[in-house]
Each structure stands twice: as C-alpha cells, then as structure tokens.
Amino acid sequence: MAALRAHTLFEKDVDYIVKDGEIVIVDEHTGRTMAGRRWSDGLHQAIEAKEGVDVKSENQTVASISYQNYFRLYERLAGMTGTADTEAFEFQQIYGLETVVIPTNRPMIRDDRTDVMFENEQYKFNAIIEDIKDCVERQQPVLVGTISVEKSEELSKALDKAGIKHNVLNAKFHQQEAEIVAEAGFPSAVTIATNMAGRGTDIILGGNWKAQAAKLENPTQEQIEALKAEWEKNHEIVMKAGGLHIIGTERHESRRIDNQLRGRSGRQGDPGSSRFYLSLEDGLMRIYLNEGKLNLMRKAFTVAGEAMESKMLAKVIASAQAKVEAFHFDGRKNLLEYDDVANDQRHAIYEQRNHLLDNDDISETINAIRHDVFNGVIDQYIPPQSLEEQWDIKGLEERLSQEFGMELPISNWLEEDNNLHEESLRERIVEIAEKEYKEKEVLVGEDAMRHFEKGVMLQTLDELWKEHLASMDYLRQGIHLRGYAQKDPKQEYKKESFRMFTEMLDSLKHHVITTLTRVRVRTQEEMEEAERARQEMAARINQNNLPVDENSQTTQNSETEDYSDRRIGRNEPCPCGSGKKYKHCHGSRVARQ
User: Fold this and answer.
1) What does the pLDDT read at residue 259?
2) Pick the CATH number of 2-51 from 3.40.50.11890, 3.90.1440.10, 2.20.25.10, 3.40.30.10
3) Terminus-to-terminus CA distance in the chain, angstroms?
4) Which of 245, 228, 249, 233 is nearest to 138 (CA)?
C-alpha cells in the first residue's frame, strides 16, 4: 500500500524534493521544506526506494499529540492572522473561538482583478508571459505565485526562453529567501515563488535599501545616503507604475492560501494589483469539477488561446474551493475524533509520569503494585473461591521461580498444614516476597532503593508507552476494515484502544515488579571478594605474558575459576573477564606470538 501511494499520489518537486541524497518533505501550505520530518506507515521508505536514495529505518514515535489537542491544553486561546475569516467555522467548531475581522489601518486600494480562464496550460502560460512583459516595460515589479516547485521551474524555463530576467524562490533555494524578497520590489523585478512568497515579510516597493546597506562592509554615511536617495527614486517609479503586481498561476485548494498570495501586495495603503490565470487542466478544475461542467466550459472556447472572464467562472471556482475546504475540514475533524480517544490515555500516562518525577519516594506505589501483581499471578493457578483439587500448585511454583526467582515449597506447605486455605496461602506468598525485598533494601540502603525504584518505573513506563503508541498507529491504519463487517470503525477503535491500554498498564506493573524482585544485590564482602579474584586473575595472566585488556571487567554474575593448571579452550570465556570467547580475545594474541 505504501509503495502504491508513493508512486501514484506523491510527486517529486511537489510533495517533496531530493536534497543531498535525502527525501525532504515540502509543506503544501507554506511551500517550505520540513527538515528532519518523515512520513509514517512506511511511506517515507517507499519514496526513498522510488527515488533511489538510501532507505532509512522507520522513526519510532516516543510521543504524539494532534495540533488541536495541543492547543486545547492552554486555558486561553487567541490568535491573529490576516486570513482567518475563511476558516471561521472551523475555529468555532473545534476550539469554540469567534473570529472577528478588524478594519485595516489604512484603506486597501489594491486592484483585485477578475480571474481569467484558458482552455489549456500552454495558453495560460503564454498569457502570463505577456502580462509580465507589459509590467516589465512599465517598470512595475511582479510576484508570480505557483503551487509547487515543479510549476515554478516550468514557468522559469518559459521566462528564460522569452528572455525575461527573474528570480526563483522555492524550497530548493530557501537559503536565498531574504535576498530575493529584498529585491522583489525593484522596478521591473520579476520573482517566481511557491507558497513561501516571503511569508511574514513585506516586499518594500522600490527595494530594500537596508538590505543593500547590510551587504556593504563598514558603509559610510555617504554610501547610506546614496542608497536612500536611490530607493526614493525607485519607490516613486514603482508607485507610478501601480505598485506590486501579483500573478497567480493557479487557484489553490484553499481560499486562505490565495488570500495570502494576494496579501503580498497593497500593504499599508500602497497601490497594487492581482490576477489569477487559470486553465481547465489545473488540478482544482480536473479533480473537483464534474465532467458536465468541464465539457460546458470547453464549449465556451471557440477560438484558440481565447481568454474567458465571467461571474459564472468565479462561482464555479468558489464552489470547487468550498468542496476542497469541506473535505479537508472533515479529514481534520475525523483525525481529531480518533486522537480524542488517545488523548484520555495520554493524560493518564503523563499524569502518572509527572507524579513519578515529582516524588522521590514511590515505595507505597511499588508496594501496591507488588500486591496486585502477585495476586494476579496466584489467581491464574488458584482461582478465587475454588476447590483445592482445582489448584495448579506445580505451575504456580514454576511461575514464581521463572519470573520472580522465588523458590517456594508450596506443595510442602499444604502437606504440612491442612488448615492452610486459599487466603492464608496468598498472604504467605506476598509476605515472603515483601520480606525478601526488605532484605535487599537493608543491604543497599533506603535512599539507593528509592532511587532505583524510581528509575525502573520511569524507564519501563517510557518503553511500554512507545510500544503502545506504535500499536495504536497499526490499529488506526487497519480499523477502517471493520466497516466491511457492518461495525462502526470509530467505536471499534475506542473499544480496542481501551483494551490495549489496560493491557499496557498491567504489563507495566508486571515488568516493574519482575525487575525489582529478580535484581540481585551484592554485599560489600562479595564485591571485595570479586575484586580480589579479578586482581588474582590479572596477575596470573601477566605471569603467562598475556596483556590485560583495558576494557575487560568482571560482571556482576561472573564466577572466578582457576585456569593456571589447565589449558584454556578456544571457545571458553576469556579469563580476563571481557566476556568474549578466548579465541577472540587473548587467545588470538597468543596465537600471533
């Protein structure tokens, strides 16, 4: 499925670019590259294979949250943007926020001209080039907006062929953004840009004299005054020519993006103009208009290269964009509904994690977990309120030995004490587990044990939460198939995710208690004895002219053995304590000698 999506739905220089042997995602809304970001579900690897670059492993999710639920974490929400009005319904539905339109500081005098439609893309590009030529002759700067890197490069080649000097601003040349934007307001300047279009910056009419001054090394006051004078002259030329002219080569799927492009011109009361050039081959038209409307519009073109302008055209475009916006809104709303399920789990996990971080003593929590875990294990072999004939004592003894390292003669207890019933047996097992744990605590000290408990709990929680997030992703990918069984995928997702979360919490308790119970504590005498044994072994090795490996060390479970009176086998552990086989450690050095 990922390979199919990579080859059919994702295009090079539209959805991504190949840079330095890596696939870099291009944000469809901003036109900027998103370095370090990768698609999930194997899609990024499929695209890497498609483009013939090194295929890297899937990133493991350690934490996830949707933008909507992230913003909901704040008690108060507010925002400011010049293009919020078209998304007012979504702000109200998702965040409960009202959108207020504030009047402009100065009157808007930009001339937003009617869209022009052409039969095909070639005729459209020809008209765009003629419009650019006219602006260049009148010394009016032009900003041409395209929807992708690919389209910006196509138009750039057409302008080169027409002999029109221009700059290109897209994800491939984002390092030059500041310089290109600074020059975009010069008389006769032509700039081709994707959605980047110098977002967040003003294109100053006449050019940016401050940017020019910054290029000079230690500029004098005379040079600065000269740049200012030149800017005033250019500014006057551009103002008389009509300000910055915006050309849109295609309507975007969202009106908000179109408004952002238009908003590059006519800022702070400056003059300006804008026009969108469209064709029946544009993606918006092909995908979101039915065949009947397209055929009707094709019949309207009677002369090759003819342009069409009408109010009906504006309605058709508005209808297509409304469909797209509704489609994307439904997608975001659907994603939020699924994320709301995970959001409750996320709150529970982070609340527990913060509790662990804020408290140095979690012994009460550990004791409660130990009680739950041992009772849960005992329940599997001694069901509550069951007859003794139904008890699996041998299985319980093996389970306690394998998982917790507890060798308990439960069978002997039952033979010796006929009055030992289910409840008292449970209490005895739990008491022994607590007693052994207290003995460890006495050996290492209370502070050290509290620190160890906290570390084990945090590490286990983090690891299991990462695994749970991966499992939730897999569940989300295939849950739609439940619809074929006449089941509601969202309800099934809620039910399955709750079951998985409950299992994760049970697994957390079990992992923590297993680790804490099985850990072996060495006394000071045992550690000193191990150190003496290591030193003796090093001395014997030196007597045999074998250099001691600097990285070798005696592990906690290693046992000393006297190798002085026998020959060491090639596949035996090396006596230096490195953990390697003898033939791969000091044995290889002896062979060379």
Assistant:
1) 86
2) 3.90.1440.10
3) 58
4) 245
pTM of the entire predicted model: 0.64
Q: What is the pLDDT of residue 563?
A: 47
Contact 187, 206 (CB under 8 A): yes
Quote the tokens at residue 370. Answer: 């130990």
**Token output for 212:** 């020019």
The neighbouring-strand residues paired with 111 are 273
Greater model confidence, 578 or 407: 407
3-state helix, strand, coil in the chain (%, to 5): 60, 5, 35
Residues in the chain: 593
Give the DSSP H or E segment for 317: helix 311-358
Q: Is 3 helix (H, G, I), strand (E, B) or coil?
A: helix
Domain boundaries, the chain: 2-51, 65-102, 111-323, 358-518, 524-553+565-592
Q: Which CATH class, in words, describes the domain spanning 111-323?
A: alpha beta
Q: Quick one: tokens of 342? A: 């995970």
Residue 175 has what pLDDT?
64
CA–CA gap between residue 90 and residue 83 (Å, rounded): 13
Q: What is d(CA 297, CA 309) in angstroms, rounded to the nearest whole number? A: 11
* Structural domain 358-518, CATH architecture: Orthogonal Bundle (1.10)
Average pLDDT over residues 332-358: 90
* Separation CA 238–CA 246 (nearest Å): 14
